[in-house]
Specification:
Layout (H helix, E strand, L loop, with lengths): L5 E6 L8 H7 L3 E5 L8 H14 L2 E6 L10 H7 L5 H21 L3 E4 L11 H19 L3 E5 L5 H11 L4 E5 L1 H6 L5 H8 L3 E6 L1 E3 L10 E3 L8 H10 L6 E3 L7 H22 L1
Parallel strand pairs: 1-2, 1-10, 2-3, 3-4, 4-5, 5-6, 6-7, 7-10
Antiparallel strand pairs: 8-9
Helix pairs in contact: 2-4, 4-5, 6-8, 8-9
């Protein structure tokens, strides 16, 4: 595959990401896929989805897990509802994310991505050890499937994410780097963060955002690629410096406005192609 094949974040039936039809219309060769609802994760549907992607000429580079009850309404709500961190839902979600890994294996995909949620920074916090155990269990399950786990950036600083991954100690645990999330969550300047975690980056999102007035306390603002504070050209040049040559997956999270979402993604494809030609 060529250096930096462009991709988009897609959805089958779970409401996140654009449709496969639109992905095909943009002419991109790769997609990341938000996992279908539980009732759609049968071996038959995996086989049908795999055939659909092959027919469309799309390579699925990662499946991303998500769960019922998650909400990104604001930062406190994310802390209480997202990923494997919330104690009340963790056991059930750990079972489900392993099922999602098995489904993605049937599709022929060897990467499982997810947001773990807000991991405590203090190792003495009992919650830290609980998340450590859950993550090791997931990595063990995926290793049997010959799969890697990619944790998406956002809720932790680069230093805290590196510390956690080191504590897990799994050889199949890596990073899906999303520069806009560093800004949206107020967790660090994205280019400097990328340099720090670059040796573990195995997939990326191309997304842009503007800083909030009070970073870390309130959301930043997601904006079209190239119009925010990430500095997309510098982002790609930094990816080049760290030796990343994998897919550049566009994510535009405005599902409430599909026409604008599609227009922004089409503009993002043009921008990335132009920057690829410039950087080489």
């Amino acid at each position: 595959m060529e250096k930096w094949p462009i991709g988009v974040f897609t959805s089958v039936d779970a409401g996140l990401g654009v449709s496969l039809d639109f992905a095909q219309q943009t002419g991109v060769p790769t997609v990341q896929v938000h996992t279908p609802h539980k009732g759609s994760r049968s071996p038959e549907s995996a086989k049908a989805f795999r055939a659909l992607c092959e027919q469309a000429g799309l390579t699925v580079t990662a499946f991303f897990g998500g769960f019922e009850g998650e909400s990104y309404a604001d930062i406190p709500t994310v802390k209480n509802t997202v990923g494997l961190v919330p104690p009340d839902t963790r056991a059930e979600r750990l079972i489900e994310i392993k099922e999602i890994a098995d489904f993605s294996k049937l599709v022929g995909v060897n990467v499982l991505g997810l947001h773990l949620g807000f991991i405590p920074h203090d190792e003495s916090d009992p919650l830290f050890g609980e998340i450590l155990t859950a993550t090791r269990s997931l990595c063990d399950h995926c290793r049997v499937n010959s799969q890697n786990v990619h944790l998406e950036t956002g809720q932790e600083s680069a230093e805290d994410l590196l510390h956690f991954i080191g504590a897990v100690g799994a050889d199949n645990l890596f990073i899906n780097f999303d520069p806009a999330n560093m800004i949206l969550y107020g967790c660090g300047e994205p280019i400097e963060a990328l340099k720090k975690v670059g040796h573990l980056v195995r997939s990326v999102h191309c997304k842009d955002a503007k800083w909030a007035a009070r970073p870390g306390e309130e959301w930043g603002e997601e904006v079209p690629l190239g119009e925010g504070d990430v500095n997309i050209e510098k982002y790609l040049r930094t990816l080049d410096e760290i030796g990343y040559d994998g897919p550049l997956t566009i994510e535009r999270e405005i599902a409430h406005d599909p026409q604008r979402q599609q227009a922004d993604i089409e503009a993002s494809v043009k921008l990335l192609n132009s920057l690829k030609n410039t950087i080489g």
